[in-house]
User: What shape does this take?
Amino acid sequence: QVHVVESGGGLVQAGGSLGLSCEASGFTFSRYAMTWYRQAPGKERDMVASIASTSAGSSTNYADSVKGRFTISRDDAKNTVYLQMNSLKPEDTAVYYCNARRIAYGQDFWGKGTLVTVSS
Assistant: This one.
């Protein structure tokens, strides 16, 4: 059974830092691209950061709005992907979702999200 579980959300002041984790099970984690998305109230879900599968070189990609502030990383031994968020802004407030995707197999798994609130 597949599980994707985010953790680490919470309340932080603007300018602060927060680290999110996403632990997965039930599939071969290293073969999946992992992506963090976020959805603010009343807005669409947007990509924040992605990291390719290990076999694809673990290349990373970031939304322009978070470049230089957020860092995505993965630990295949722990089946976990991380999102380190620094210099947080109130506009980073959102529910953050973790996604695992293996396009060639049409597989796409989502977590239930973790709320990040940045106060001004």
The chain has no helices and eleven strands. The longest strand covers residues 94-102. The two ends are 40 Å apart (CA to CA).
